[in-house]
Amino acid sequence: MSAPALSDQAPLLKTIANARPDVDTVVEHVLFLPELCPATLNPRPGSTLTLRYQAGELLLELFSLDTYMDAFIGHPVVRDMEFFVQTVALDAASALGCEVTAVADVTFNRLRQGQRITVKARSST
Predict the structure, then answer these.
(1) The CATH number of the domain where 27 resides is what?
(2) What percent of the chain has a predicted confidence (pLDDT) above 90?
């Protein structure tokens, strides 16, 4: 089975060197999701995506992570939340070279429900 293709946005995701890779460190980035769909204005404000990983030699760079997330606003292909979370998890795992768990807690306009999506992605390198 071949490795999943990275998104067109993957090159936007940058890393920085971990100053203390010998220290057991778990990193969680809690991202407040923007409205990704211009038609439905979903997800609603307050929806989050948490990226969690065991820090190794690399860490996700914060400013590029914001730029990367904004690149999905109005995206013509990555439209449903499940695909979005899978894509982000795979891109982050590839950038870091380690397993990444992505958990989205999402609420929607015009629906009386929320959604929690959990994806574990492994680096193909």
Answers:
(1) 3.30.1130.10
(2) 79
